[in-house]
Amino acid sequence: MHSSLPDFDMPNEEQVHLAAESFRLLSDPTRIKILWALLQGESSVACLAELADAAPTAVSQHLAKLRLAGLVKGRREGTFVYYTAADEHVRKLLAQGLFHADHIDRGQADQAPAHAAP
């Protein structure tokens, strides 16, 4: 059936695995708050902890996982590390997820977005 579609294409196994891992990491509300804050600009663990209403040690652990997955980057300055979202793809992914959640909440899930960005 699908072989008759001229533009049909499936992602390779590595792409599927990496996408699933990214979605798994984004399934935590604290990580979503952390990433959303980082999309507004660079931040430290202490500031992110306050914004996410979480303990600094927990935020640090979340950041380590997000960093390993390539969703955030860190910049060391002396004894401090300042974090940012990795790239525009992270912004789009998170914005679309939050936009979708907002529309489900309002009963409008079938409407297409004009744009969704922080």
What key phrases describe this protein's structure?
54% helix, 118 residues, 3 strands, 3-stranded antiparallel beta sheet, globular, single chain, mainly alpha, 5 helices
Would you list the SSEs in sequence order as H and E? HHEHHEEH
- Strand order in the sheet with the most strands: 1-3-2
Strand content: 5-15%
Based on DSSP secondary structure assignment, what is the total number of beta strands?
3
Nearest-integer average pLDDT:
88
Helix content: 40-55%
Low-confidence stretches: none
Oligomer: single chain
Radius of gyration from the alpha-carbon trace, in angstroms: 17 Å
Secondary structure class reads mainly alpha
Count, helices: 5
Distance between the first and last residues' Cα: 40 Å
Inertia-based shape: globular
Tell me about the largest β-sheet.
Answer: 3 strands, antiparallel
Summarize this structure briefly:
Helix content is 54%, strand content 12%. It is built from five helices and three strands.
Q: Could you characterize the architecture of this molecule?
A:
The mean pLDDT is 88. This protein has 118 residues and is mainly alpha-helical. α2 packs across α3 and α3 packs across α4. β2 and β3 form a beta hairpin.
Write the layout of secondary structure elements.
Elements (H helix, E strand, L loop, with lengths): L12 H13 L3 H12 L2 E2 H8 L3 H13 L3 E6 L2 E6 L2 H18 L13
Antiparallel strand pairs: 1-3, 2-3
